[in-house]
Amino acid sequence: MLVDCIELQKNYISNDKNIKAVDNVSLQIQSGDFVIILGHSGSGKTTLLSLIGGLTYPDKGKVLIHETDNLALSDQDLSILRNRTIGFIFQFASLIPSLTVLENLLLPLSFGGKKVGIEANALDLLRQVGLSDKANVFPSQLSGGQQRRVAIARSFVNNPEIILADEPTGDLDEETENDILKTFRKFNEKGTTFVVVTHNKNLGKTQRNPRIIHMRNGVVTEED
């Protein structure tokens, strides 16, 4: 078992009201799964993704990664786990403007101590997302879609076991989206696990044997 979510609950206060963003959700994810979480805005998809990645702590419940409880780890050990095991694709590219595209890709590796072949790997990832000629430019010289592709490449640079993606193709044109989804499928077929939050109901058609999960009001309502 790669990820085991056990009776997760996360509440927020909004306009003096208690909102159950994630309401008693249990979910198991096996290595090699391609999980797609569908739901409207406010359904709890992004919060669930943050809980799985250890970016947010639950009010109740546990997240186990390889049977290790995120809550039982120190901040440093949790950071090490994320760096070695998880690749994140956020809704926004969040690139560091003072670093070149290549430097942005290499930044996660600097925390993990990896040295051998890292630049060649990063350049290959840029090639796979169609940006091999942009390695030495700065984020401000890229379009929004190009910045998103850099962020997607960065999520793979540590060869993570699992990719957590929040609307990963939301601001890409159709052709680029198709290219990125083909890249996802290639990595998934090699064993990388994906958990993808999206509004795109057709995304599952691009992957082999996806698990489709629906969320509504913080609850997993059904699974196809």
Structural class: alpha/beta
CATH superfamily: P-loop containing nucleotide triphosphate hydrolases
The outline comes out as globular
How many helical stretches? 6
Average pLDDT score: 90
Q: Over all CA atoms, what is the radius of gyration?
A: 17 Å
Low-pLDDT parts are none
What is the helix/strand order?
A: EEEHEEHEHHHEHEEE
Note the main sheet.
Answer: 6 strands, mixed
Query: Which bin fits the share of residues in helices?
Result: 25-40%
For the termini, the CA-CA separation is: 20 Å
Protein model, in words:
32% of the residues lie in helices and 29% in strands. It has 224 residues and is α/β, with parallel strands linked by helices. It has a single domain, classed as P-loop containing nucleotide triphosphate hydrolases (Rossmann fold, 3-Layer(aba) Sandwich), CATH 3.40.50. Strands 6-7-8-3-9-10 form a 6-stranded mixed sheet, with helices on both faces. Strand 7 (162-166), helix 6 (174-189) and strand 8 (193-198) form a beta-alpha-beta unit. Helix 3 crosses helix 4 (118-128), helix 3 runs parallel beside helix 5 (144-156) and helix 4 (118-128) crosses helix 5. The two termini are 20 Å apart.
